[in-house]
Structure formats: structure tokens, C-alpha cells
């Protein structure tokens, strides 16, 4: 008895499916997508297994999970806070205090390290033997000493050796330096102080407008205008005039010694100063070598051509060499900025209240919410690094040479 028609139909379908499957498996595009999908699925399953096992173990031990602890009262003080904080605030508030302190030292460190690094890098190429050797010694010393040791040096050997508050080093009548930190006068703004702010904004807008006008004039006529001095004059004259015209609404609050420490004014704690000095000086040694390499990568013929046109060395460096060197300097410079931000976590060694010390340290010890706290801390550093990379990539595309 012959087999029914359905058997032949199903057999044909199986054979056809096998042939199509074989063709797909031999298709490079399909195989690449398939393997990537399998790898992604395996990674997701691996992460899910770790999280599920961790939550199960914590539940068996009676350890609470979740982010409800952020609303609980912290109960501990923080030495430096850019926002209002005391012991009655929540753990969520400590997170933001630590985050702002980390951002503060990172931003200030990047600015100082960049300025110092460019100065040392240019000095390294100086024709003056003494200046060049001094820059080389600076680079070799600070680049080869571990950062943690440099932090300890500035904090314990330098700042902790300063006199007590009663024997403070005074600079004038409003600046005092002692073992507790640096204290100086704080500006206090009165009711009409907003006029000074408006005058400052007007000065900035006027300076930018004048710079645009001066550049257009130079392109049209070839005549150069003093952009820098005019802009600085506007920034000084307009706010000063507004200050006196509005009745001098700003006065200085001078720090005064009361008890064992100074009260009033602005105080910079020694932990911040030590960390900022160490990060800036250490990172600047690497930035200096990056700047030196970028300048050396520019053809010497560019410098000779600029000098032959009568440009002084300062303008040659600023207008000809540095703009071409930036396309080489920016990518490794971004890495140094990221390293500085991440190295700021070493602040815990001297008690600076950054995110790691305040949140991943004290808060973690009090709450035991290890997974949530470490995950939030890692997310913050990841976000800061990605944001820094984004800004630097935008700037890199702006200064890159566009080939015609």
C-alpha cells in the first residue's frame, strides 16, 4: 500500500527546511547575528543568575534590600557640604553631598591640572636650559611617585605641620592659614546686588560681540583690534560702575577666631587642599608630556613659516602650533581627565568626604545595603566619565582639521 500524500508533503517540508537552514548557517550575516544574539542571551542569563542568587542569599540572612534606606535619617555629620546638611537629613542627602564633593574636586583638579600641564609641557620645549631641565625634573619626580603617597605627603607632611588656629599665618587682615584650613573673607550680597550680576552679564555679552566684530573686521581689512584688553576692561569697568551706582550692596564677611577655630568667611579644609594639590600636580605631569608630544608632532616648517612672516614666538605658538597640536593632544588628554576623576576616590585615605567616603563608606557600614550603595556609586563614576568623554569628543570634533 503506497504511503499517503501527507507523508510526502511533510517529508518535503522537512527536507526543504533542512536545506534552508543549511543555507542560513552558511550565510555570514545570519551567523554573525545568531552568535551575537546567543552571546547576549548568555550574558543576560549570567547577570540574572548573579542578581537572583545574591537577593536569595540576602533574603535568607534577613538582610533588607531595595532603596528604602535612602529616606532614613543618617545620624552623622559631614565636614564639608556644598548644600544644607546636618545629622537629621536622610541617607539620600548624604549621597548628594558626596556626589557634589566628588564633582567639586574633579572639576577643580581638571582645571588646575590642565593649566599647570600646559605650562610645564611648553616649558619642557623651551630653549632656555634651566627652564627645560626644571620642567623635566618636575615630570620625572611627580609622574613616578604613587599618587597615594603624594596625597599623604601634602596632607601629613605639609598641611598638618601648619600652626594652630591661634597662631595662624595671616596674609593681611582677612586671610588666615592654619592646621584647620585656609580661611578668607566671603562676599555677602545685599538687596541691590543683582545689578552687579546684570552688569557682569552685559559685559560678557559685549565682550563676545566685540570679539566677533573684531574678527570680521580683520578678515575684511586685515587690521587687528585689541580684543583681550577691551574684553577685560568691560569685565572690570561695568561691574565696578554698577557696584558704586547701586550703593555698594556687597560687603566682605571677615573670618574671626572664636574659641578653637575661625567662624565666618569661607574655609577650605586641609583634606580638600591636599587632595586637590596631589591630583593636580600628579595629573599635570602626564598632561605635560602629552602637550610636548603634540607640539613636537607639528612640522617644524610651520613654525619657521610663521616666524618668517614676522609673527613673534608667543603668537606663533598660540595661533599656529597649538591649534594643530590639539588634534593629537585631545584624545589622550581625555583619558587623563577620566583618570583624575576616578583617582579622586583615594580621598577616603585622608578623610575627605567624597562619594566613596561618605556614601560607600559610612552609609554602607550603617545600613548594610551593599549591593544598592555600590551600584549607585559605580553608576555615578560611570556617568561622570561618560559625561566628560562626551564633552571632550564634542570639543575634539570642533578643533579637528577638516580635509577638503
UniProtKB/TrEMBL annotation:
Subcellular location: Cell inner membrane; Cell membrane
Gene Ontology terms describing biological process: amino acid transport
Coiled coil regions, renumbered to chain: none
Bilayer topology: Multi-pass membrane protein
Recorded superkingdom: Bacteria
Similarity annotation: Belongs to the binding-protein-dependent transport system permease family. HisMQ subfamily.
UniProt protein name: Putative amino acid ABC transporter, permease protein
Organism taxonomic ancestry: Bacteria, Pseudomonadati, Pseudomonadota, Gammaproteobacteria, Vibrionales
